[in-house]
Structure formats: C-alpha cells, structure tokens
Amino acid sequence: MWVLIWAALLLSLTERTTCNKQPQTPPPTTASPWTITFSPAEITAEKGLCAVISCTFSHAENFNPTAAIWFKCPENGKCDQDENVIIHSETPSKAQEGYKQRVSLLETDLTKKNCSVIINNIRKNDAGEYQFGLLSAYTYSKKVKITVRALTQKPSVLTPPLTEGEPATLTCTAPGICSGTPPNITWTWRGTGDNITELRDNTTIQKREDLTSVTTSHFSTLTFTPPQLSTTT
Ligand SMILES: *[C@@H]1O[C@H](CO)[C@@H](O)[C@H](O)[C@H]1NC(C)=O
Ligand SMILES: *[C@@H]1O[C@H](CO)[C@@H](O)[C@H](O)[C@H]1NC(C)=O
Ligand SMILES: *[C@@H]1O[C@H](CO)[C@@H](O)[C@H](O)[C@H]1NC(C)=O
Ligand SMILES: *[C@@H]1O[C@H](CO)[C@@H](O)[C@H](O)[C@H]1NC(C)=O
Questions:
Q1: 114 Cβ inside 6 Å of ligand 1
Q2: Cα(198) to centroid of ligand 3, in Å?
Q3: How is domain 36-149 classified at the CATH fold level?
Q4: Rounded CA gap, 53 and 38, in Å?
C-alpha cells in the first residue's frame, strides 16, 4: 500500500513536470542583460566611401561602461584581441595603424548605449566581421559583417541653363558622406573643338559637415561664363 502511494505520487509528479515543460519553450533561462543589436545586420560599403555600423547595446545594471572598443575579426581565431583593435575610446593609440585615422564613434557618450561607428575611406580589406566590446567587462559575441564592393555611386552635377556670355554657377557634389580625405574635383571645358581645358579659376571646393563633423559631403562650385562666339555647346 505504502509503495503504491509512492508510485502514484511519483507518477503525478512526473506528469506535472512534463505538462509544465510543454508551454515553456525556450526553457526559463534569465535573459542576459548584455545584448547588442545591429541595424542592418550586414553592411555593403563601396571602396573609397564610408561604412556606418549602426548599433545599440545593453549591459548589466550595476556596470558603468568606461570605454568602447571595436575589433576587426581575423579570418580565423579570436576577435577580441589587442592586435585586432580598430578603435579604443579611452586609449586611441591602441588602434591598428591602418584604422586609427579612419574610425570614429558616432556617439561618444556611452550612457546612450549607442555603439554606432563610422569607417572612412573604405578599403578592400575592410571586408569582414567586426565585434564590439566594453573595456574590462564584456565582448558581445554577435558580430556584424561588412562587404566591400567597387565604387558605383556617381557624383551629382547641378547645371543651370548656360547662356553665352552670362555667368552661371555649377555645383558638383561627390558621393558619400564621409569625413575622410576630400575628393579631387576638377572642372573641364570642352567647346566645339576637341580641346579640353581645365578650369581652375572661379572654382571652390567646400564641404558641408554635420554638427559632430562625422559626416561630411564635399562639393565644388564653379562660376563660369560660357565664352561668346561659336564655341558654346
Ligand atoms: C547613435 O548616435 C548617432 C549620433 O548621435 C545618431 O545619429 C544615431 O541615430 C544613433 N543611433 C541610434 C540607434 O540611436
Ligand atoms: C587632383 O587632380 C589634378 C588634376 O588631375 C592633379 O593635378 C592633382 O594632383 C590631383 N590631386 C590629388 C590630391 O590627387
Ligand atoms: C586646341 O589646342 C591647340 C594647341 O593648344 C591650338 O593650336 C588650337 O587652336 C586649339 N583649338 C581650339 C578650337 O581651341
Ligand atoms: C570668374 O568670376 C568672375 C566674377 O564672378 C567673372 O567676371 C569671370 O568672368 C569668371 N571667370 C571665368 C573664367 O568664368
């Protein structure tokens, strides 16, 4: 009798456990406070332009982030190693030579939990995976991938109607919004002949920066007076 009761008790216990387990998928693990989100999760960048990794993170409540670190992952092996640092917000000299001048955080206030980063003057070997970490605390395991392709974006040229002998202002804006090296914009004039003349006078190269000077668009204006006689096109 006693054995029977035990058996019944065990059975009901087992049943309850199996019943309880059913609706709880995934199993009740406490969610990690350390999360990172990339939007988008993959980035395609063009050579010579810039890439922006847009990213937010969360961390344990009792932790105060002091510095942000981005790593470029090698093909094989661990990512969060000193030799893979591309930006270190506390000790900038720790970044690899090839990245030092090219990488900036979009948001330097870590309490904003914004890990977005911009890489300027994209090169072929910037393709690969990147990982974010907080100094002496945590490296987020999720990685973000950058693919690099050839430059396809074209400059845009704004041309008003041109009239012989009347000055006009033309504007050429380079593609991309990078704060990297300014582009080389040249204006040339070809009349009816085959001669191509470079116009250096009356051109200005300017840039438009956002408040943080992280994004910059470069443009050149030309004040040009189309020559009279039959040389206009
Ligand atoms: C991160 O910060 C930058 C610069 O302040 C801002 O432009 C961007 O929208 C922020 N991203 C998110 C996801 O909040
Ligand atoms: C810009 O282009 C002009 C004309 O082709 C050239 O003389 C000059 O060296 C170029 N400058 C740079 C920085 O590439
Ligand atoms: C083109 O250039 C050549 C050599 O500089 C010059 O002799 C010729 O007159 C030019 N032609 C025109 C149409 O400007
Ligand atoms: C340069 O600009 C000045 C004044 O805007 C104008 O008089 C001159 O003709 C321009 N030069 C050229 C080569 O267009």
A1: yes
A2: 14
A3: Immunoglobulin-like (2.60.40)
A4: 7
Task: Convert the pLDDT of each residue in 124-174 to its tens digit.
Answer: 999 999 999 999 889 999 999 999 999 888 888 888 888 888 888 888 888
Indicate the domain borders of the chain.
Answer: 36-149, 156-224
pTM of the predicted model as reported, rounded to 2 decimal places: 0.69
Distances (CA, A) of 67 to 15, 89, 113, 117, 118: 51, 5, 12, 14, 17
Cα–Cα distance between 221 and 201 in angstroms, integer? 11
Cα distance between residue 115 and residue 71, in whole Å: 12
Residues 6+ apart with CB under 8 A from 115: 36, 53, 55, 56, 57, 68, 70, 105, 107, 132
The tokens 């456990």 sit on which residue? 17
